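Work package 3, deliverable 3.1, input record:
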Amino acid sequence: MADETTIYDIARRAGVGIATVSRVLNGSDRVAPATRDAVRAAMDDLGYRPNRAARRLAVRGPNRPRVVALMPMFSTNFYFSASRPLAQGLARANMDLVIHDVEDRPMKLRLVDRVADERSAEGLIMCSMGIGPERQERFLRLGVPVICVDYLLPGLPSVTVDNRAGAAMAAAHLTAGGSKRLGLIGGPSEAVAFRLREEGFVAAVGAAAPVARAEAITREAGRVAVAELLERDAQLDGIVAVNDLLALGALEELRSRGCRVPDDIQVIGFDDQPLMDALGLSTVHQPMPAFGAWAAEAMQSLLTNPRAEVPSRQLPLTLVARATTREAPRKRGK
Amino acid sequence: MADETTIYDIARRAGVGIATVSRVLNGSDRVAPATRDAVRAAMDDLGYRPNRAARRLAVRGPNRPRVVALMPMFSTNFYFSASRPLAQGLARANMDLVIHDVEDRPMKLRLVDRVADERSAEGLIMCSMGIGPERQERFLRLGVPVICVDYLLPGLPSVTVDNRAGAAMAAAHLTAGGSKRLGLIGGPSEAVAFRLREEGFVAAVGAAAPVARAEAITREAGRVAVAELLERDAQLDGIVAVNDLLALGALEELRSRGCRVPDDIQVIGFDDQPLMDALGLSTVHQPMPAFGAWAAEAMQSLLTNPRAEVPSRQLPLTLVARATTREAPRKRGK
DNA sequence: CTGTTAGCGCATTCAA
DNA sequence: TTGAATGCGCTAACAG
């Protein structure tokens, strides 16, 4: 918008030819110091910024594919764990990765439309979020593959886990350990994964079980949530949290109230993010790096052969029994 | 290299004009299905990939500044914590962030040269690593600002902490708590920050103190390292680790051997990465998000005004006394 | 519906 | 040391 000054402008301003401008731009030493300074002065005056696209086109720079990944980093450690293999996989395939931290829905739409409008990427990775049908259609027409990570979208390749089943598994584990009255700490409802886990829990335990939705993915929010749960039913003897941090917060609150875990109340989280083993939290393990690895591979094959058949994949969820539940630990206890 | 086919090639191959090719490329519906298919077939045959630079130039797409950040994500959680504010800050300033996970020195050099050769970025952020003088000079000539995060490089704006002082502070804390014989768990020597912390420790405690360098930044490596330390001096009663994960591993090993921490041996880490409070690890706190925030701001001002004076900044390190050391916790204990 | 013709902003010969 | 001319690959009118 504001940046429309070109080398022609500055050439005129400095009273030289565009070739000279180009020279100082590229740090050539075949320019008289005097003219160089004049050109630089002109550039400063006009607030000149070289146009990257034009430069690359002119130098016939390699046309490395670029893929942009949209992710709500806010939530958890999940994205960090998933990003690494993603970045490495794409790098190996010689592709650039642009990561955008999406804060809300409007921002998501803006970014998505931007890559479509500006053709700024040859591939799009949506993490934990969808993309409207019309936009999906648009990318299809543009020939820009879109894949989903941690989000199931019919018609698009995606990696997911069965969140419902995972939550049910967690509940069953507590029940097997002897808990009779379970409660759930849910998460912000914008996150589909949390909603699904909540559904899975309710389906398994019954609609009568108390549910408290944390407002953020923090330990503090977890503490608040258990408090709410206990207020609704002081007899609760089992807590399922849709996320490890929430479970950790619950744990802290319970302990500070003198509750013994897992003797009085069992607690289980979800994700098995790093260090949960050190903290002894029982949880549902999600193979986070596998999400990123799959995405990198899927994108690569899609960019190699646009009509490639990339099957969606459902990653396994495994229960990891540790110190906050009563059932005997099995494998994966690490 | 391999990708030199242009719309001219596919136009000829399909027996149509380049405009038509461009149309199918952009998903226009003003193309006869038959010709569309023919064009697509031609594109497939020739393995055509549109040149992004050319498209952007043609559509007069906005010339959003791009900054690439090189970081060795391998090491720790540090980069994750620092990346978020970086990404958000740059996004707010309307700049694109390309993150590269650098695995080793050769890779670093390749990437650095690439952004210089291809003029693929208007700004460069080096995390925890340097850039040779000649390359630095080259970027200067190209007018591409380079800034350093977690690495002190004379002549370049940088954010750092005083790693030496931090390690000394850690050692002093153990001493104040009564430890007489300290040992250090160092890190891989490629990482300058670890080297500096080691130096700081040695300077404070004396060259006679045992040092064991972990081969990786993992708890397992930490266990191995303490074992080595104890073998060298079974009377050790204080361990300083250059990183939290290493300290955690040490803690595990010590406990598994029946050592009581902090009664028999005090342990302190470095970084204060997330969850360290929950684990009760005493450590030296590093304001990780501040690194990213500074970088975003510095880069923005540099791109706004190339000749802006961006002063380097040294962030404060604070000691956080928790359950693995004997000194009474002060502020920041959380 | 489709082909022709101009640029987009810059790097680069090639002369001067 | 410098300037004029040419082309990079593609999109966008403008004719047909």
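The longest helix of chain A spans residues 288-304.
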